[in-house]
Amino acid sequence: MAEQFILNSIWKHEKQPIEEQTLRDYLAVIKSELDPNGELWLENIWYKIDDYTHGSISYYASEAAYTKMLDRIEAQRNVADDLNGIIMVHEFKGEVFAVMSEVYS
Fold this sequence. Notes:
The chain is of the alpha+beta class. It has three helices and four strands. The chain has helices at residues 20-34, 63-84, 100-103; strands spanning 5-13, 41-50, 53-60, 86-95. The longest helix has 22 residues, at 63-84. The two termini are 15 Å apart.
């Protein structure tokens, strides 16, 4: 079974509506800065909830990988808030215990 660790968060854009291409570009930048080799942070998906709110699902190799990245994650969150007025309003995290592609046959 997968040992991945998931971080699911909800973000509020306080200064302006979501600009999808700008955020895609920003995700590429933070990926290259936080984990350029993709060893710890395996995947990230951002999805639009409404014009001022987006969700984020991050997949980490393990809880230890997430913990190793935590200082970098916190620094990036501060930049997102300071530069863009994007603040986290909810955060849920935990270890993966079931994956559909691994249990469905």
